[in-house]
Amino acid sequence: MTDTYLWPPQPPAALPVRGRPERFPVRRLFFVGRNYLAHAAEMGMTVDKTKEEPFYFTKSADTLVPSGATVPFPPQTQDYHHEVELVVALGAPGFQVAAADAGALVFGYACGLDMTRRDLQLKARQTQRPWDLGKDVEGSAVVSEIVPLPGHLVDRGQISLAVNGQVRQHSDVSRLIWSVAELIADLSRYYHLQPGDLVFTGTPEGVGPVWPGDQLVGQVEGVAEVRLQVGPAA
Ligand code: MN
């Protein structure tokens, strides 16, 4: 009886892998806050890398949806924002990894959207409460296929997001404050990183609201494209 459940368990979150029949089983979703100066500035913040460390939040793997999905406009927000991000997909474990060795954990990359109930995130920030209601939103972690680039540290390439064909965000991965290697090394001080973990590396400037009917296309040059259709509230 040990293998029976009261109801069918949720199948594991997974993403397609370019050029492979097997899917990438997703374990945890880590997100970096304020990793492009121009986005920090539009959020009313500054970042001094010489004095600060990166900070993180997480979303449940249950919030993951594949590129091409239609996701209902979420409840309790009037300011649902797009954030396009380079996503690192880990394929090997690591704990207390040096930045020089961080490449060994990399399986590949994806283009992701960190959809955010901005009004709830800002209210949480002001009242010094956790960000979960703003960030851990059902259907809010939208991710492209995983593109295998084992051992590779992506450090440049245009990143952009268009809504209904109009470009809203445009920058370059070379403007990351903390690089992919630095993020893996830093995160591995706090977590025993595992294959299947995804690290969203932060969004550039130009974030803004979306509404039912909007079509989003995000791109990271040399990696992949992610698409999302915002459906009616449900
Ligand atoms: Mn983000």
Walkthrough of the structure:
With 234 residues, the chain is mostly beta strands. It contains four helices and 18 strands. Helix content is 12%, strand content 34%. Strands 3, 4, 5, 8, 9, 11, 12 and 15 form an eight-stranded mixed sheet that branches. The protein has a five-stranded mixed sheet with strand order 6-18-17-13-14, with no helix packed on it. A hairpin with a 6-residue loop joins strand 1 and strand 2. The N and C termini lie far apart (37 Å). 39% of the residues are buried. Manganese (II) ion binds next to loops. The site of manganese (II) ion (MN) has 7 residues, from loops.
Number of beta strands: 18
Assembly level: single chain
The CATH topology: Fumarylacetoacetate hydrolase, domain 2
Bound ligands, named by name, code or SMILES: manganese (II) ion
| Radius of gyration over C-alpha positions, nearest whole angstrom | 17 Å
CATH class bucket: Alpha Beta
Number of helical segments with 4 or more residues: 4
Strand proportion, as a percent range, falls in 25-35%
SSE-based structural type = mainly beta
Mean residue pLDDT: 97
Q: What is the name of the CATH architecture?
A: Alpha-Beta Complex
Largest sheet: 8 strands, mixed
Q: Tell me the domain tally.
A: 1
**Could you state the CATH homologous superfamily?**
Fumarylacetoacetase-like, C-terminal domain
Helix content: 10-25%
How far apart, in Å, are the first and last alpha carbons? 37 Å
User: What overall geometry do the principal axes of the alpha carbons give?
Assistant: globular
Helix-strand pattern: EEEHEEEEEEEHHEEEEHEEEE
